[in-house]
Amino acid sequence: MIPLILLLLSSNLLVSSATATPLQSFIQCFTNKTNSPNLLSLPNTASYSSALLSSVQNQRFLISPNSFKPSLIVSAASPSHVQATVTCARAADLRIRTRSGGHDYEGMSYSAFTGPNTTPFIILDIAALRSISIDASSKTAWVQAGATLGELYYAIAKNNKNLAFPAGLCPTIGVGGHLSGGGIGTLTRKYGASVDNIVDAWLVDVNGRLLDRKAMGEDLFWAIRGAGSAGYGVIVAFKVNLVDVPSVVTAFNVGKTLKQNATKLVARWQELAHQFDVNLFIRVIAQAGTDTDGSKTIQVTFNSYYLGRKEELLPLAQQSFPELGLKATDCTEMSWIESVLFFYGGTGKPLETLLNRTPEFNSSFKAKSDFVQQPITENRLEEIWNFLMGAKDEQLVLIFEPMGGRMSEINEDAVAFPHRAGNIYNVQYFMRWFETQEGVTEKHLEWMRKFYGFMAPYVSSKPRAAYYNYKDIDLGRNVEGNGTNYLAARVWGTKYFKGNFRRLAKVKGMVDPANFFWNEQSIPVL
Q1: Which terminus has fewer CB within 10 Å in the chain: N or C?
Q2: pTM for this prediction
């Protein structure tokens, strides 16, 4: 059977360069370079719909009238396909949006915000680039950018149960975006963020060259560790340092409501968690709920683990956080890889669950983030709880993740990720909904913005910092057709990158002066 793309080429795409559309020119160029037209998916075809939906985690960008869909999807199967995509798209004057896991909070890896000057774009899907090579003797690994965190964790554990990698808690997240944007999780306080443990990379630059760390230079290698790679090129693979974990870790959940002194415990947690032994990780998850008597309450979960056995944890917890009242019956010993499933809500499931790449929910969501530098008082916490309990349909979850430890020891400008000393925790505001009507979506978005404004007095300021992996378009965005406006971009750029933003823009000017790699929150040219 002749592939559809070849039929299209033979019927109406084999035209002169003077009359070819940009899309026709791209298809012809890509086919000539790769001889792989089967990797291309055009709209209104079964392969297009399947490819587009394969890793979309946030459905609201598929239904929004303000979203622009890709003109073509390239399902790259090798680094050479990535190089051909970049070269041919640039020649045809088309944009590229690279997607690995599809978790981009604002859908920028698979959709664009519509506007009068929106340039047609191509999705470069690299999910098939997922090989992982572990070298336990040197405690390093090469992982291709299309792999997921779950696949990486699984491969490490299969090779050596006493090695791990510091990154996020959700196993379906793609390595390419997550690692290049920061990467914080359960091992962060002991070993730093993902970006602090990247030692090499392969990147396809604007000229289609495949560059390692030496070839790309230290400025670019610095930038892609914290500021993402979407504005600089396409990450193909990372080399990372693996870290030591014990054979046994101890996990526990302790739940509290307002009647069980949840407010006092959260207030005390803020004072202590960033100073705990680095082997002890305790995060807080808070949301509105119903108490046993039917009254409104806040349900707080201390979602935690310790890098060691229960017999070591219990006296440490009694010394470090006695108010929590941790008991032996709260604790479960397991391997580190099993703790990944524990934090994912998959306790008891087979480890192969980590290899499942299927999108978790057919839903929409919105998230925002803050960094907190001073504990919020009990009275102020009660005001926050009242705000949450006063909501009608909005199910907002607050996730507090402790900083301190190794994160406070690394300089803000060591890599592009700047959120270091002075922060006691990061907080993510996360809200999911399943209705698909645009009016419902806008109602939820407005409520989230209202809550974000309410939180302003309690969080960092000048700038009010945010985590780039929790992208938030409300902070500001680049507008296509308005040139590369560095001054306008500083409004949102300094929130993500603080004092590193200017250097990031200078690096952008060196490696991509024409701003080919562009999206609504890519680094502008200085």
Answers
A1: N
A2: 0.95
